[in-house]
Each structure stands twice: as C-alpha cells, then as structure tokens.
Amino acid sequence: MTSPVISARGLRKTYGDRVVLDGIDLDIHQHDVVCLIGSSGSGKSTLLRCLDLLEEIDDGVIELDGREVSDPHVDPRAVRREIGMVFQAYNLFPHLSVLANCTLAPVRVHGTPADEAAARALELLERFGLGDKADAHPDQLSGGQQQRAALVRALCTGPRVLLLDEITAALDPELVGEVLEMVRAEAEAGMTMVLATHEMAFAREVATSVCFLDRGRILEQGPPGEVLTAPREERTRQFLRRVLPG
Amino acid sequence: MSGVTWSPSEREVERRRVRRRDRTRGAVIATSVTLLVVVVLVWLVTSSPGWPRVRETFLSWPDAKASFPEIAKGFWTNVKLFLIAEPLILVIGILVAVTRSTVSPWLTPVRAAAVLYTDLLRGVPTLLVVVLLALGVPALRLTGVTTSLFWLTLVALVLSYGAYVAEVVRAGIESVHPSQIASAQALALSRHQTMRHVVLPQALRRVAPPLLNDFVSLQKDTALVSAVGVFEALFAAQDYGNYNFNYTPLLVAAAFFVALTIPLARFTDWLGRRAVRRERGR
Questions:
Q1: Residue A105 maps to which CATH number?
Q2: Which string of b and e fits A101-139 if b means at least 16 CB within 10 Å?
Q3: CA-to-CA distance for B172 and B207, rounded, in angstroms?
Q4: What angle do CA A174, A179, A180 make, to 5 degrees?
Q5: A180 burial class (0-12, 13-18, 19+ CB within 10 angstroms)?
Q6: CA triplet A21, A24, A25: central angle to 5 degrees?
Q7: Which of A10, A22, A72 is facing B15, going by the closest CB pair?
Q8: CB of B190 closer than 8 Å to CB of B198
Q9: Domains: count for chain A
Q10: pLDDT, tens digit (0-9, with 9 covering 90-100), for A21-79
Q11: Residue A109 and residue A157: Cα distance in Å, rounded?
C-alpha cells in the first residue's frame, strides 16, 4: 500500500471547555473518497477545517505527503495550495463574475498566465454545464449553479485533495443531484476527496470508505457496505435509523 | 470525561514551546523596530539646521505654561460646540437619509429638499458656511433670531456635517441586504417599522467607524469658528501668539484636540469589537 496523502494522528480540537475533536486518526490515500457521517456537532466540519489548517489544533499531528504540516513553522498557504475546499454556503465572492472567481487563485497564487487560467476555467465550467454563466455574478445563479461554480473554483487550482463540507446541505432536493453528479464525475476521474455529508445513498455509492463520527471521535470506519448496512456500533445503528428512510 | 483525563502529547508541548518562543521573538522585533524608528525621527528633526530657532518659537515651556489657562478656557467652547452639535447632526443625518430612502409619492417634495440639502451643503466649504451664517443672519435683523456667534456658528457646523453624516447613513441603509427587508415584510412589518427595527440598527452598526471619523473631524472643525471671532482654543492660542511672538500655544491647542479625539477613537474600536462579539458569538 502506498503512503497516505493526508494523515492525521491523535487530532484534538477544543473551543473553550467543549472538546470538538477527541483523538482523531485518519489516513487518506490517493484516489480515496472518504465520507464523514454523523449528527451535526459530531465534528465533521471541524475535522475538515483542521485538515486545511483553517483551525489551529490543540494536539495531534497532521501530515501531507509524509511531511508534518501541523508544525507552527509550516506556511499554511503552501499546504492550502495543494488542497481544494468547498463550503456549505458556497462562499463565492459576490463582487466577482463566476469566471473571475475561478481564475483568482490560479493567477494570483499559482502564477498561471491569465489567458491560460481563463481557458482552463472556461473548459471546466463548460464541462459542468456552466459555460453560459461565466460572465454572470454569483447572486444571479441558482443555489445549485453557485455550488457547482464553487466546485469549479476549487478544481481550477488543480488540487491533490478536495475537502467538501456538506456542500449539498443548503440546496433544494431537486438541485442536490446536479452537484452530486459533479462530485461523482470527479470521484470517477480519480480525485482524492474527503466529504462531510448527509447524503447516505450517495456515500454508499461513491465512497471508498465511510467514517462515523460521534462526539469528536471516529467510532467506526470501513467500506460503505459494512458501515452503512451492517454497523458494529450501537450508536452508528441509532444514527442510521434516524437518517435512513424506512 | 476525556477533557479531564487528557494531557498534551510531547509533540503538542513542543509545539506550544515553539509558538511561545515565536511570540516572544515577535514582541522583541516590534519593540526594537519601533524604538529605532522613533530614535531616527527624533535625530532627523533635532539635527536640522533650523531646529534651535524652531525650538525657541514652537517649544517654549514658559510660553506653554503662560498660555495654558486661556487655551483651556477656549477649549471648553470647543467641547460645548461639539457636544451640542454631535447629537443634532446625528438626528439630522438619520432624518435626511431615511427621507431619501422613502418611496411614497406624497413625500416627493421632502425628498427633493433632502437631495438639495445634501448636494448644497456638501459642496460649500464648512468655513464658508460658518462665515455666511455668522455674518449674514445678524445682518438680516430678524426679530427673535439669535445674534449670538456661538449659536450661529453651531448651526453652521450642524448643517454642514449633517449633510455628510446623512450620506454616510444612507450608504449604510443601502448596504443592508434586500433579504433582510423581505423577511421583515414577511413578518408584516410596515415600511416604517422595517426601517426602524430592522434596517437602521444594522445600518448604523455598520457605519459606526465612518461616523466616528466624521465626528473626530467635527471636533477639529470646531476650530473653524475662530474665523468669526468666537473665543475658542485656536483663537486663544493665536491671540497669545500675536501678543508674545511665540507659537508654542498652537501646539498646546493641538494637544488639547488630540487628547479629546484619541479616547473617542478607542471607544469606537471597543464598540465595534463588542458588536462583532455579540453577533458572531466571539
């Protein structure tokens, strides 16, 4: 087995007295699609934010390609250049057109020539059905379109890992499909992904591994067939009963 | 449970040590760089060829002491002008801004007047408004209208700054997202209630920093009334200078103004931080 792209050991995060992550161990290998499930407040989002160094951790070690990035002297921007992140609330920049949203980081951070970055962004927008929205501003788009644009923005920098934080949670059910379709396409293309999600059917279908988080711990981890259909832990069963229909 | 039994790993202890060391280093750099800049600046000024002469005319301790009481007395006028003008300006500013954002066809003349007011008074230099009112109104010989220069110049400052503040408040009103107005209307609030309870509170919080900026500016511009002979800090300082051929009192007056504006600036910083804490839950 190859060494993991991202590896977390004994991750701990607290807000005041509240322990949000309590000793998380997680390995993400290339082409993995890891789904984090669990009730809200179980630490899914915080874990993703910690992996992207958006939060300072209180203990543990995070490694990217075997190099510790939780060291205070590691430049977090160098780490974030390698990682793409998409948020629940899209977080597109409202003052920029869709195309400008997508080319901002490639041009400013990665030094891609502007015409090259625009060509690549347009190609991706085209592929995901947003070709005619390139010059529109985010607020003119539907939620589904905005989230797809946010995904394209994350993909434009050519990240090695994609972190998706409940990216369909703010969408109408009928718009969820178009966004998940895009994630599925990326998964099939071999993109390494970690996603916090409530879409159990999607997790079952796309995930290579599912982690059930409970009170800041990974209570159970395994292939979706195991965790989602025959969980070992009683708490996992309880959770699945609540979220799965029937 | 786990919060009690948990103790930091060796790596974390090491990391904390590194962060602490980095913070200490940062503090040392900040202090030494600041000291260096101050020393260089002082050296540059004191080694200039005209320094002895400047020190004599601008930094004379006896003159500072001698002029202090008069300037302090004059400055009290500045403080009074400012304290009375400020609330009036805020009221006028909000009224004009709200008027400009009304839509009722009945209010068209009022809206036009509000536009004309802001356009005119933002266009005319404040000093000119002060002089025009202080000299022009008494010349009209109206009965029942004050000829007190204090009150006339106060009105001039209020009119001039009211126009500025109105525009700041209007920008704040327009920055409130339409979805806020929609949800207020969905609760069946009237236009007036929407403005009063939903839009204005958010708008004013957002424009607090630029508003304070205008108020600091007003504190300084109270010195403009010296142009028509109102006895305030600048007038007192110039008065002393003209008799004694020494300009130290100007610096004394400047110190008075600075001493008034800095606490106000810190106060707004604090207000802003408190608002952020309350809305984002720290």
A1: 3.40.50.300
A2: bbbbbbbeeeebeeeebbebbbebbeebebeebbeebbe
A3: 6
A4: 95
A5: buried
A6: 170
A7: A72
A8: no
A9: 1
A10: 999 999 999 999 999 999 988 999 999 999 999 999 999 999 999 999 999 999 998 99
A11: 9
In B22-41, the residues whose Cβ lies within 8 Å of chain A are 22
Inter-chain touch A70–B19, beta carbons under 8 Å: no
- Tell me if chain B has a CB within 8 Å of the CB of A59: yes
Domain membership of residue B40 as a residue range: 1-45
CATH of the domain at B83: 1.10.3720.10
Residue type, A222: G
ipTM over 0.90: no
User: A161, A217, A151: which is closest to A34 by C-alpha?
Assistant: A161
* Residue B40 falls inside a structural domain: yes
pLDDT at B21: 95
Count of domains forming chain B:
2
In terms of CA atoms, which chain B residue is nearest residue A58?
B12
Is the residue at B262 inside a domain?
yes
Residues B22 and B73 in one domain: no
Q: Is A71 within 8 Å of chain B by CB?
A: yes
